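Quick one, tokens below. Sequence please?
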């Protein structure tokens, strides 16, 4: 009798493990996570935190239990260079059906440039200078570098302004095959503990901060599984965490990053009955929903705050690229004031592109738009960036000094330039510096025999990127 009971228990356990394994892999091939927690900061500018490391450890333990490959950085390990280097490593190995989660618990910072806020997270070696922090622009850049992944989620237990990229539309959860649709589309999503001039409460449920405590209750305890289907989408996570973790000190804020295609990062929930995912459907079956009601897309093409006339506008189905073989659904040309209009657009998700009218700009720029059934007009701003001309050292050449001077052309309207220098093989940053000049001497000295890549971004007085050049290379002679 005992033998039969024991055999039955073994079979039940095996079935349960099989179900868990299937749930881990049915939407994703591989899952990667970078988890960062910083209690101790050596700089006197940043106070000691009590729960940041414990928050990160709690998240890391949960993700490990769900099959994630987790890289953990705590306190002294969480330097600016190391954080960026670890994201670079993930970018090199990630594949198109994978997901990436980045969690940060530590200090945040907001800096004002003209009329625009710039948001930062503060690494272990952050000082008083924002050049030692990790900016939102850097997070966007790393997100793009990891862009092969189907889904990305950034969870930031820190308060700062100027963080979120856009507030994107979302697919209606009531449409057929909703879960299949959101897991097929790309997702670039982010949620933070609060905004500028707010403070993260460093003590909350379960011995964690208020924000992380409710994040764990949402995904670990299944509290965010609002419809009880056994899955937690980012929309459900946000719907639970925002009201639960809001108070007079902080208000969590969800958003999206460039490249978001109306997908949803999905967790498996311990609540509800796990259901098989719906049969795959073609994206066209879900992008056009309800009775078609034509809408108008209006917009403006800008460089900084200046209109760009005569630029071509192209509308394609969601997931399209400006130079792929997908059909062009509609076209327009920007007027002398940079404005354009596209009439008779049906509800659904689209990609809209602006094609540069001249060689002084980079070739194109684009974004996603979503037109709900009931909406008659959608407005969008498309921003082109100019090409910044790098001068010295010449691309691909050797330099005979370990402290070379970098030079680039001056750009009217630019009030500062940001210079990045990376070890081309390891991806580690060796210099990241702001300057108002058009040249910079690298210090400390570089390593002989190593190949480096460098890039420059130009910003206007509002802190908006108006020009850049992505990468030139040079090698320091031995």
């Amino acid at each position: 009798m005992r033998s039969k009971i024991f055999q039955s228990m073994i079979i039940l356990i095996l079935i349960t493990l099989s179900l868990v394994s299937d749930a881990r892999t049915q939407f994703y091939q591989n899952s990667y996570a970078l988890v960062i927690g910083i209690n101790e900061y050596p700089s006197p500018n940043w106070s000691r935190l009590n729960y940041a490391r414990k928050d990160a450890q709690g998240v890391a333990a949960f993700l490990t239990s769900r099959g994630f490959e987790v890289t953990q950085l705590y306190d002294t390990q969480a330097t600016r260079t190391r954080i960026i280097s670890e994201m670079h490593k993930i970018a090199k190995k990630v594949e198109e059906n994978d997901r990436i989660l980045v969690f940060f618990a530590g200090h945040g910072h907001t800096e004002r440039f003209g009329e625009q806020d710039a948001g930062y997270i503060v690494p272990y070696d952050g000082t008083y200078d924002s050049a030692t922090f990790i900016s939102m622009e850097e997070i966007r850049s790393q997100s793009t570098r990891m862009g092969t992944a189907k889904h990305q989620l950034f969870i930031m237990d820190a308060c700062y302004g100027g963080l979120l990229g856009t507030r994107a539309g979302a697919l209606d959860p009531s449409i057929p095959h909703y879960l299949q649709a959101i897991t097929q589309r790309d997702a670039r999503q982010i949620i933070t503990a609060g905004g500028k001039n707010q403070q993260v409460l460093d003590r909350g449920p379960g011995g964690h901060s208020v924000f992380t405590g409710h994040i764990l209750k949402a995904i670990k305890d299944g509290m965010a599984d609002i419809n009880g289907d056994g899955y937690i989408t980012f929309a459900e996570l946000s719907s639970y965490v925002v009201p639960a973790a809001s108070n007079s000190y902080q208000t969590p804020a969800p958003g999206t990053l460039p490249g978001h295609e109306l997908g949803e990062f999905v967790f498996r929930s311990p609540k509800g009955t796990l259901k098989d995912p719906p049969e795959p459907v073609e994206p066209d079956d879900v992008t056009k929903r309800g009775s078609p009601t034509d809408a108008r897309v209006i917009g403006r093409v800008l460089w900084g705050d200046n209109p760009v006339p005569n630029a071509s506008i192209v509308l394609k189905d969601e997931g399209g690229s400006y130079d792929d073989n997908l059909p062009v659904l509609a076209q327009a040309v920007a007027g002398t004031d940079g404005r354009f209009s596209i009439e008779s657009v049906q509800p659904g998700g689209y990609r809209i592109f602006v094609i540069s009218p001249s060689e002084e700009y980079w070739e194109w720029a684009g974004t996603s738009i979503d037109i709900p059934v009931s909406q008659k007009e959608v407005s969008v701003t498309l921003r082109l960036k100019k090409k910044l001309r790098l001068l010295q050292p010449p691309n691909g050449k050797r330099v005979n000094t370990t402290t070379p001077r970098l030079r680039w052309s001056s750009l009217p309207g630019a009030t500062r330039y940001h210079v990045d220098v990376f070890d081309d093989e390891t991806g580690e940053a060796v210099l990241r510096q702001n300057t108002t000049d058009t040249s910079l001497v690298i210090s400390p000295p570089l390593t002989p025999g190593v190949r480096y890549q460098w890039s420059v971004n130009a910003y206007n007085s509002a802190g908006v990127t108006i020009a850049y050049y992505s990468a030139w290379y040079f090698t320091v002679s031995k």
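Confidence is low (pLDDT under 50) at residues 1-6, 8-25, 161-171, 274-292. The CA atoms of residues 22 and 248 lie 42 Å apart.
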